[in-house]
Amino acid sequence: MNRIAAHFMLSMLDVSDDLDKLNAWMLGGTGASATLLLSNADSSSSVLSPSVAVTLLSILSISALFGIGAKINAVKIKSAKKVMSYAYEYFENHTEEEVLEILRSIKLALPWWTHGQIERDSSKGAQDSLYGPKLALRRLEYQKKFIGIQAGILVVAIFVSAALIARA
Predict the structure, then answer these.
(1) For residues 116 and 132, what is the distance between their CA atoms, to the nearest angstrom?
(2) Cα 48 to the chain's mean position, in Å?
(3) CA 73/CA 140 separation, integer angstroms
């Protein structure tokens, strides 16, 4: 039953790819807006004071930071889904001892500073067989929150820009 639940939970991660595409478009728009603002700073100085331009750049920078946070979570989700899919597939065709031996080999191939996290995750995974999928779903929630905040900040930037243009 846990295997079915794990596969179901992993399938819920498919939405992450669509969210990542939306995030990429918003990051592109943020970068393009910042570039336009900077490249037209001299000609727009009659409309925008330097403090307003700095404020808009700050808003766009904060939006970009949340976009980067969402991007990092997307990468973690994609890699976790791939690793867990391989692990479940391998686990179906091999004994537990064979799987543990492969995991030990993988751990030895990774840098020493990752070993502590691997041990902690292995311990939690031994206690809860759905630990990996739950962790990936938590990262999906973070990705959604980052993208929501990013979108909200972009809307604020649009309204601030529109208000400044209307005022000029």
Answers:
(1) 16
(2) 34
(3) 7
The CA-based diameter of the chain, rounded to the nearest angstrom, is: 73
Helix (H) or strand (E) holding 3: helix 2-11
C-beta separation of 136 from 14 below 8 A: no
**Tens-place pLDDT, residues 42-88:** 776 666 777 777 888 899 999 999 999 999 999 999 988 888 888 77
DSSP code at position 128: -
Rg (CA), the chain: 22
Length of the chain: 168
Rounded distance between C-alpha atoms, residue 164 and residue 104, angstroms: 60
CA dihedral sign, ordered 23, 28, 32, 35: positive
Asked if residue 37 lies in contact with residue 134, where contact means CB atoms within 8 angstroms, the answer is no
Q: Residue written as tokens 């391989």?
A: 86
Instruction: Look up residue 98 and give its amino acid.
Output: E
**How far apart (Å, rounded) are the C-alpha atoms in residues 27 and 130?**
33
- DSSP-assigned letter for residue 49: -
Q: What is the pTM of this model?
A: 0.78
Write the CA distances from 57 to 30, 53, 65, 102, integer angstroms.
10, 6, 12, 49
- Tokens coding 27: 């990051």
